[in-house]
Specification:
heterodimer, A: 283 residues, mainly alpha, B: 284 residues
Chain lengths: 283, 284
Amino acid sequence: MLNTFRRSFFPAAWLGWQIESNWTDPFMFLVFSIVKPVASVMILVFMYRAVSPAGTDSPIYAYIYLGNAFYIYVGAVMAGASYSILDDRERYRSLKYIYIAPISIPLYLLGRAVARFITGTIAVIITLAAGVFFFGLPLNPLGVDWLTFFAALTLGVICLTCMGILLGGWTMTIRTEPWFIGEAAAAALYLFSGAIFPITLLPGFLQPVGFLMPMAYWLELLRRAILGPGAAAFPTLAGFSNLQLFSILGAITIAFAVIAMLAYGYFDRVAREKGLIDSYHNF
Amino acid sequence: MTTITSLTTPVQPDRGWRLFLRTILARAYPRLIGQQREKAWIFFETFLPFLATIGYIYVYRAIQAPEDYIGFAVIGGAMTAFWLNIMWLMASQLYWEKESGNLPLFIIAPNSLMAILLGMAVGGLLATCLRALIIVGLGAWLFSIPFAISSFLQLFLVFMLTMAALYGLGMLLASLFLLFGRDAHQIVQLLQEPVYFVSGFYFPIKSFGFVVASAASLLPLTLGLDAMRQLTFASGPALGFLSVEIEIGALLVLSVVFIAAAKYWLDLVERKAIEEGTLTDRRR
């Protein structure tokens, strides 16, 4: 068991890091790491500045900024698992070799997710630093509840990893345009997660989708940890205590872990039966 | 008898402008028809930009922006379809062709690379127009956007000039991507959000201030979007960067410059391919 973990997880994490970072020189990688997330958040900053007279002191500004910054993890960790499968199957055409190696594929995917988590963390830190130094984000490191922050971050990332394994397994069974799966899931959840606007702004019939997803609770906990009492200005989840939010997030994480485990087994069987492990499409 | 005659008559290959036009049509065909056959592409290429646009619309709702800003976001969202088309299906196309082994065939064929890329541009433009129209239509329907078009003629002119400059830029980037390395996939990703930001896809670029907005105007979509918003919304002129007439003139200049630069670099690509023989090497 430990041997399988050692053989699957660590090489996958190292391989993932190499794929993420060695396509260019360190300077270009640094530029890539800075420019993309900062540009993404600057769109929101300038949208806000173009309209709102309240300035950066308004709670909604920090709400939008932090939600967008931490949502980077969703694209990196959750959608990343889908891209890992596709990279291995379609681009490097190595998935079949990985499959016959004495490793555990879910653990391998977990390792690849760690690499994306690291690159995601770099992007999140850069985005937050840019917010503090250039865009008036009211983040005081001395005022952050670090325990709540790290507990929420860890739980959220575990949940995203489970969702990623679910998505990765599904991706293996998709024959037509599998590239869109990860992107579509991340884009759809962006809308329903309350990352950049409160879920209560959505039409009533769509709001339950947002409340079923873990991101809303996860982002709320992160905002509360970082902003302190200021985060209570958003009424969506204001009625819940931190403990309640942790409980909900924990329950959703366990649910996704079980679903991911069962679903991966199913998707794996379908992919083997249909000969999709070594098939290439449109690459 | 007729069949025998037709088989023995030597086929006259097209040359000059006839070959150029036929190449454009031949390369436009898969873009226009082939892409419509791929239903998943149509859905996702429309659906994904529209989802992002809806997100930005709700941000404007959250900060209680005037209704015209929601229209700004929808127009910006529609134009992302063109930028994605330029980056994924124009700029990186020759790189993909190299990866899939078709590039040597393109280069040794008697037609010009310029005609091949123009074909991609024409087909891609028409196919992407459909997606952009769907985004605008859905946005207008779902969010009751208050359009107030002041001049259809100018709007058409702005759109066509923006597309000419944009696809000229796409052709230029196609040759540059091919020349400079194996990082096309990452560079395309790198040029996504920064361009959405710099070109003001979701907000008026006037908020940049004159100097930054002028620099951003080197990208055709910046001025194109600004002019389209001025011509489409009641509050557009008040939030515009330059007057529409100046922006039309600037777009005309950008079109000529980008198309001429694309021609220069594509000629260079062809020359290098012949002289060095390494351009089509997948390992580079």
